[in-house]
Amino acid sequence: MTRRQQLKNTFHERRVYRHRVTVSILILLTMTTIVVARYSQLQISDYDIYKTQSDRNRIQLLPIAPKRGLIFDRNGMLLAENIPSYTLTVVKERVQSLDDTLAIINEIIPLSDDDIEQFRKRLSRRRPYEAVPLKFRVSDEDIAKLAVNRHRVPGVEIDAQLVRHYPEGELFAHMLGYVGRIGEREVDVIDPVNYSGTHYIGKIGLEKYYEELLHGTVGYQNVESNAHGRILRVLERHDPLPGGDIKLNVDAYVQRVAYDALEGQRGAIVAMDPHTGGVIAMVSAPGYDTNLFVNGISSTDYNALQNDPDLPLYNRTLQGQYPPASTIKPIWGLAGLHYGVITPTTRIYDPGWFSLPDDSRRYRDWKRGGHGSSINLEDAVVESCDVYFYELAYKLGIDRLHNFGIRFGLGNATGIDNTNERSGLMPSREWKEQSRGGHWYPGETINVGIGQGFMLATPLQLAVATSVIASRGELRAPRLLASVGDVPVVAPLMGKMEDVSSANWDAITRSMEQVVNSARGTGRGLKAGLTYRMAAKSGTAQVVGIAAGEKYDSSALHARNRDHALFIAFAPADDPKIAVAVVIENGEHGGSVAGPAARKVIDAYLLGKPKDSVPETENSQDAVAALAGAENHE
Amino acid sequence: MNNSDFLRQMPGDSRSMGNQRSISQRLRIDIPLLILLLILSGVGLAVLYSASDGSMAAVLRQGRFLSVAFVVMILVAQLHPEQLQRWAPFAYIGVLLLLLAVDFVGVGAKGAQRWLGVGGFRFQPSELAKLVLPMAVAWYLSIHPLPPGFRHTLISLLLIFLPTILIVMQPDLGTSILIATSGIFVLFLSGISWTFIASCMGLLALMAYPMWEFVLHDYQRQRILTLLNPELDKLGAGWNIIQSKTAIGSGGFEGKGWMLGTQSHLDFLPESHTDFIIAVLAEEFGLRGVLLLLLLYGLIISRGLWIASQAKHCFGRLLGGSIILTFFVYVFVNMGMVSGLLPVVGVPLPLVSQGGTSLVSLLVGFGVLMGICADERLVHQ
What we know:
The complex is a heterodimer.
Chain A: H1 3-45, H2 47-58, E1 59-64, E2 71-72, E3 78-91, H3 98-108, H4 113-125, E4 131-135, H5 140-148, E5 156-165, H6 173-176, E6 178-181, H7 184-189, E7 200-204, H8 205-209, H9 211-215, E8 219-225, E9 231-238, E10 246-248, H10 252-261, E11 267-272, E12 279-285, H11 291-294, H12 299-307, H13 316-319, H14 329-338, E13 348-350, E14 353-354, E15 363-364, E16 372-375, H15 377-382, H16 386-406, H17 429-436, H18 442-449, H19 459-470, E17 474-476, E18 481-484, E19 487-488, E20 493-496, H20 502-517, E21 535-541, H21 557-560, E22 564-571, E23 578-584, H22 590-607, H23 620-633
Chain B: H1 2-9, H2 14-27, H3 31-51, H4 56-77, H5 81-105, E1 107-109, E2 112-118, E3 121-123, H6 125-142, H7 150-168, H8 173-190, H9 194-215, H10 218-228, H11 237-251, H12 262-265, H13 277-310, H14 314-338, H15 356-380
Antiparallel strand pairs in B: 1-2, 2-3
Helix pairs in contact in B: 3-4, 3-13, 4-15, 5-6, 5-7, 6-7, 6-8, 6-14, 6-15, 7-8, 8-14, 11-13, 13-14, 13-15, 14-15
């Protein structure tokens, strides 16, 4: 290759190179345009989309649970509160050696193997900056001990959380019910927004009935967090609206007296104000500690409650359906007077049995040989003469009994502000045909005459019916709730019996007073030391069958087959302030077993706390608690 | 004569250039290109400071890398193109051996063997290949008359293919494509026929399917699929692209402000110091910032192409042109992959992304380029 050629080639090479560079520059410009177009698309056209996306990345809405409303009794005593529950937590990223830290904690607060195992399981699921619970429900003492040693265990913290607490768990168990962790069933029904920060919900009783009121409204905060979910700062905060504090008509002292009166027994006592419908006391015995349920009850505890033959979980006041037995007699007496079937002076002969015309079957009186030859209405109520009411019921007929009975709230749920109420049974022809598919037989009317047969009533219904007698015809839905904040709640009036003459009310009230005052009265044992006028009626119900849903221990069958003792009363008879119904299962004698319980409750309400037994304490709540203790020692 | 030539190319710079010419001449460096590279490095440090959440340590570390790299650049600029041309074949063989060594005794990281340990010091032979491959091709082509015939073209392609396939096997698809590209640029600039170029492109299109099926690794296929639809894998492979697009898009035209980018500062943006640093810049400085950065790259590439075209010998021209075009490809691939135009192949943004190795190999390239330029001026004098 000559030098000339070389030079020529060099010239040619340069020309080709320049050409290729020009082409390259065009390609470069095209590619740059693509990049610019792409960035313009992202940053200009789709700016809004990505701006939103970027904000959604970093800003999170965190719910703040509202504080649950408190529950007080009528005197301001706290029945349900929120107490801080302390949890020992460990933040992994701030701990140098996990094993050493656990060992030090174990010196201060003993940890079980289970605690540590559960902790390690939780630790593996959480992020290193998150506080992982190590031990729940740490005592104040342990917290103090830990505080002293805090410098030794960096990254270990105490986390306080508000948890529902019932200071008188057992006493108000059935009335208040309890809250528990929100379960699968509730998740479907609750408002997902309002409950987004809430872990607990009313499961039963008042806690469930007034859930909406007690819960409050959720608050929220906008927080900025990073990609790992760590919260860096709060951008905005809307405080939650706390749940309403509610005050009950219930008097904790009377409740305590009623509960103690049932000590060792299975039964129920309901006391209410006949003029307002306010429930003064409502106990079902035995009770149980509702606090066990708040953080999830252990299966051991739950099985113990579930298998207890005394059925502590069973709310006898609202769910127990018992034959009203003789406690129904004043009402049937009033019906007889009202319908003109009898007068206060109508007398019958009681040979100890009654039989229907053209029927040889004998309906026996509880008293062998009968109550004698000249029994009027008052005698019949005072001595609880069955034959008188057999005859009266026969004369009234089931239709009039039914119509009159339901005006006292029998056969229908009372509408109390609580859960799981049952409606009892006030039988009628219609009911018989629908549920049993048969005719109503006259003999069935005779049983209704003494509150047996098909008739069933809950203790609450008996208290309501007693209130109707006491208030002379005012049927009210019983109310536990007295006021929300400062707003009073009035029990709705369901009916008023203005057609019943006051002479008839007088007659029936007088006869009920004689139950206590008369030397022949079934409640004569209550007369001693009575400082007010009391009207009452005892009842002893045959245990023919057990109300549905109950299972009794067969080995104890004999004891459990005894009659139920019932008692209704109101006082003062001339200006009723309290109406009470007592049912003691297998108590056998209404007047002598259930009666004294009713007297105690009425005394407690009308006479107040015995002054001399109240120890001087600074705190009124302590006073009640101390008093309750004192009562136990008597 | 040289002066007037220079004036024609860069009007307005004559006075300053005139003053500094003697210094630049002695150091064999191109002052405008150096200034542009320093400005770009400064921008990179500013963005890195923000991307590392205000960590001065990270900036100082990168600053040390930069100092070393610039010193290396000036040292490399002292080499004459003739020397490089002489060494090219030996360097090529050496790199091939090193690449083979990597495939057999290399050190792994993230499922790929890319490193070679030498007495406690690790380095990537593929970084060397970035410069040595175009050198070798330019050497081979420049010893034969240009434009190359079919035979020389095929041999050149073989020279490109050998190191490329070794790097593919590491596996490092991104780097292998970039290295192959740098060789192909030499071929393209040498003036191979358009017919040949067109046939090669046709063949590539035909080979696309077998490549997909038999050559690409699962994770590489995944990257391409994820690119096409990032929503397929929102928390996995798609996460990076979704977050980087969000960072870029949410910057808007004006940007969120320096140190105020939420995507990067709250750790939503992965690899924010390294491959994805452009997203930090785009988020904090907006489209304005992106355009200014592109302008800076544009000036560097223009200056580089001008330097290359001034080279007297065709070896310098081909090598210089390839270096600067490859530089552009880095910018394009990085900006394209971060914005979701291209699959994520692990290409850093030149002089902005954190990392020492790629920095050194880039500035070595610019050193070679400056050496070519200085050689040209000496010849003129």
